[in-house]
């Protein structure tokens, strides 16, 4: 229709467009006039009516509306608007560096050397960092971090990971051919789920996930149109995984779908528990019996703080259960550069080890990964440092060890601090933060607050978290974003702010909580001793 | 069943496992004995029968079987096995650094500075690189590359990209809110397609792609279970996009699906053509009329070699067509760090600019992207350098400009060289390599070779490429992996090897081709002047 109107278009550019700072200003009115339908803008191809319904179904609380609101408040503060606080503290996401944690020097030295190899001549870089960088570069095409790696990752890094796993698991063999570098752990988890989900109707793949869960899982399941199978962790027993609950969830789901995947997060996110070896054995036995593919999210394997807890890898426990298990149970374990003591989230590094996968399916996995070409190579280099840190006799050992221990010691201190202060608040009960980076306390929300939330179409803990944010600048994520037993309410907060800031934050949280109880409890003056005790009496039922 | 057998397992570990170098050796036999089903190993959960059928349907030739075979040959060479060649040359993938192209110094300096900020004190880094790095870091959480960025990317980088686009398009406004950093362009393309695909049966989303195409598109369409709508580029006219062919494809497809997306690759991959402004106008007019979402893959926008060609961005052309187009056509344009003159594939950097998207759908896109948290931040930093290179008065300008021009000049030389030598071979005809990084010549394959391929269940050009690889070590990708008119055969080769190596490669290719013709043409001694001419007479029909 209007190929002949180019001159007119150029008129618009010269006289009209250039005076408008932002594109969107002149959008709708102009369009409707010129398409000859005054008042009604032209209908788009992509609308909420036509968008992929599985994308619409995705929820991801860690970066949900509360975080958007936190961003708005931050901008308002920067622009000098008065608030009742001077800073927004983002305790919503496990983003250590954003909270002030310093990078591990050795890791950054190796990646910088890989990135700009002229530095290999610089006397200010230690020899062990240079050797690591040279070794990585030798396995990169053209000895450059800028080449695509193989879809599974750089070979020497895959070998280093296999060695690391063997050492971590006290000799249980690891084959580097089973190692796949990934773009953070999320990418690996998504790829494996994508591979597995199939079937229609009652044969559609069901994926068992813990409740509470890290919402990547529910998001991926929604996106892939798989069936959610929720098994509830036992809050009364430090968020233990109870095998009977696993069986209940499995048997209930089996009537509607084909359960094929069992996801476990250990140490737990958002729940912070560290699973016992006995529990892992039971879970693996269950997976063996029911022929489930096990996905073990072990990204917090270095984050164990409780003195009576140890990290047991699913793989090692499987090995110790004997060859009938070790040679049969299909297991993918995930790790990441984003957590641990490095906290290198921005590099999007990670790996997965995949056991007992059918070789033909393995070829399908490699093909699927190859479409995205390769995981980011700087992130692969970062991963290499984590699995191949300086050795005792090497020049960087002392500083590396000091930095690593310092990060982990401070985290352990903050885990204890958080639990202690939260449990000192009437109406809050928090399980021990045995590992990972989060507290997931249960909070008592008075019935009047629940009513108000319902009248505003908010989850009650969303109302709580929104008010906490507006009044204190503290950003945490409502428990409803992770899943929780009906009638219970929680929030997830990270333990990542510096000890000083964390103590202030927890103090403010305490004050807020007491204000919140007072505001909504005027009809019910007695504050329950802990929300937990109250819920135990009134509302806990298998869900 | 066997939780009591831990002692036995530990016996296995001590006496048996440790003597075996690789995990897989003791897998099946042991398992079948111990699961009590001698001879028949336990059935897996995930098999070719249960794997996601849409993953099975994915094809990705750029890293397909021929590349696997090239890897095998490379390993064999390293282990000293005799071959008729001394080196495998991977001309299968646009991986510039792997082919010896040197990184742009300034880019690597900035990323290294971001990575290891202690270097900001080093006198050996130029001030402009330091300023760029400091500016990026100031917008990163905790001023660290290790923090997650916003899901859309680091704010100042998004602003720089918008400024770059405005400048590239001679003043056409770009809003940084429409810019999304991505994990390479592939990730952006995949995300947009994922957002759009919906419907069932005849309302299922159809995606129009050029044939030949870059196989990311067909792979994504298969994975998302959308409908492929092929429109054929016109080989007789330098792979031009013919609007009548677009209409034919659209109308044919409309009976079976709901065409909603039109993908264009300009400059073309694998075909190397640069679209004229007139052609782009026609395409956009068509998209406007049929209300199609336009995906413009413009990752080769800096790779234009032919003197009579210029890159015209879809956005700028849309703007010049007037507000009724500019304010209505839904357009996503993709760019990448992997191509251009930087060739930084390993960093997985890229961006997309999205125009006229419904704001509610935009929120869905942000949510979808947020599940993966953020694109790799080092790749974002690399992208920033590309859109914000040293300015005339800055200290790095001279070296940067010299390096950039050198890469582009050499590429232009190799584009010409490749076309010239290929067209000197009887039975090969190659369109001008106007842009991008590939030649996609048509090759004549004698009927006897076609018969042999069919008897071996290979595509005829796969047979050709396999033989080329086995005899010469040259790895190229068969045209069947990109799509081609039935009865025609092609391969894609990159122009990335160094000029010396490329000349040798083309010489070997020529010799191989003549041998191949001779081997298969004994019954038909006359070699056609060009395959192209022959096919025009015999087999070209609209497909």
From TrEMBL, chains A, B:
SUPFAM superfamilies hit by this protein: PLP-dependent transferases
Gene Ontology terms: biological process: L-alanine catabolic process
Cofactor: pyridoxal 5'-phosphate
Region spans: Disordered: 523-543
Keyword vocabulary terms for this entry: Aminotransferase, Pyridoxal phosphate, Transferase
Residue spans crossing the bilayer: none
Pathway: Amino-acid degradation; L-alanine degradation via transaminase pathway; pyruvate from L-alanine: step 1/1
Gene Ontology cellular component terms for the protein in this record: cytoplasm
Enzyme Commission number(s): 2.6.1.2
Compositional bias of kind Basic and acidic residues: 530-543
UniProt GO MF annotations: L-alanine:2-oxoglutarate aminotransferase activity; pyridoxal phosphate binding
Aminotransferase class I/classII large domain span: 128-507
Reactions catalysed: L-alanine + 2-oxoglutarate = pyruvate + L-glutamate
Function summary: Catalyzes the reversible transamination between alanine and 2-oxoglutarate to form pyruvate and glutamate.
Family: Belongs to the class-I pyridoxal-phosphate-dependent aminotransferase family. Alanine aminotransferase subfamily.
Subunit structure, as described in the record: Homodimer.
Name of the featured protein: alanine transaminase
Species in which this protein is naturally found: Cyclopterus lumpus
Classification lineage: Eukaryota, Metazoa, Chordata, Craniata, Vertebrata
């Amino acid at each position: 229709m209007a190929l002949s109107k180019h001159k007119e278009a150029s008129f618009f550019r010269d006289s009209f467009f250039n005076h408008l700072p932002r594109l969107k200003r002149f959008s709708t009115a102009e369009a409707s006039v010129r398409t000859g339908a005054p008042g009604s803008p032209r209908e788009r191809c992509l609308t909420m009516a036509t968008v992929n319904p599985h994308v619409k179904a995705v929820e991801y609380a860690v970066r949900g509306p509360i975080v958007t609101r936190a961003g708005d408040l931050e901008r308002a503060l920067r622009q000098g608007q008065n608030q009742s606080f001077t800073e927004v503290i983002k305790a919503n996401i496990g983003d250590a560096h954003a909270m002030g944690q310093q990078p591990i020097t050795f890791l950054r030295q190796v990646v910088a050397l890989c990135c700009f190899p002229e530095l290999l001549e610089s006397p200010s870089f230690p020899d062990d960092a240079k050797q690591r960088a040279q070794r990585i570069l030798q396995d990169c095409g053209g000895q450059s971090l800028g080449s695509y790696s193989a879809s599974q990752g750089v070979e020497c890094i895959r070998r280093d990971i296999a060695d690391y796993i063997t050492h971590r698991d006290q000799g249980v063999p690891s084959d580097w051919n089973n190692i796949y570098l990934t773009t953070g752990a999320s990418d690996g988890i998504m790829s494996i789920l994508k591979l597995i989900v199939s079937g229609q109707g009652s044969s559609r793949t069901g994926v068992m996930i813990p409740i509470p869960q890290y919402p990547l899982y529910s998001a991926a399941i929604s996106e892939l149109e798989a069936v959610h199978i929720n098994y509830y962790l036992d809050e009364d027993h430090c968020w233990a995984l109870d095998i009977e609950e696993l069986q209940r969830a499995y048997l209930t789901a089996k009537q509607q779908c084909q359960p094929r995947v069992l996801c476990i997060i250990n140490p737990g996110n958002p729940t912070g528990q560290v699973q016992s070896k006995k529990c892992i054995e039971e879970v693996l036995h269950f997976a063996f019996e029911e022929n489930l593919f096990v996905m073990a999210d072990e990204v917090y394997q270095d984050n164990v703080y409780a003195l009576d807890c140890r990290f047991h890898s699913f793989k090692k426990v499987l090995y110790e259960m004997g060859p009938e298990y070790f040679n049969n149970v299909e297991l993918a374990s995930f790790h990441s550069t984003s957590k641990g003591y490095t906290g290198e989230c921005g590099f999007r590094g990670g790996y997965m080890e995949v056991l007992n996968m059918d070789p033909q399916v393995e070829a399908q996995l490699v093909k699927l990964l190859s479409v995205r070409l390769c995981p980011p190579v700087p992130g692969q280099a970062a991963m290499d440092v984590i699995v191949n840190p300086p050795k005792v006799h090497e020049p960087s050992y002392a500083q590396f060890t000091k930095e690593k221990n310092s990060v982990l010691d401070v985290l352990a201190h903050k885990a204890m601090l958080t639990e202690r202060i939260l449990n000192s608040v009437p109406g809050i009960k928090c399980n021990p933060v045995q590992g990972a980076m989060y507290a997931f306390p249960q909070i008592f929300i008075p019935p009047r607050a629940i009513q108000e939330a319902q009248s505003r179409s908010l989850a009650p803990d969303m109302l709580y978290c929104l008010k906490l944010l507006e009044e204190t600048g503290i950003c945490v994520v409502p428990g409803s974003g992770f899943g929780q037993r009906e009638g219970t309410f929680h929030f997830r907060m990270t333990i990542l702010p510096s000890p000083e800031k964390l103590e202030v934050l927890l103090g403010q949280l305490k004050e807020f909580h007491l204000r919140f109880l007072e505001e909504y409890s005027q009809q019910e003056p007695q504050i329950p001793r802990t929300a937990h005790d109250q819920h135990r009496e009134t509302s806990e039922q298998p869900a």
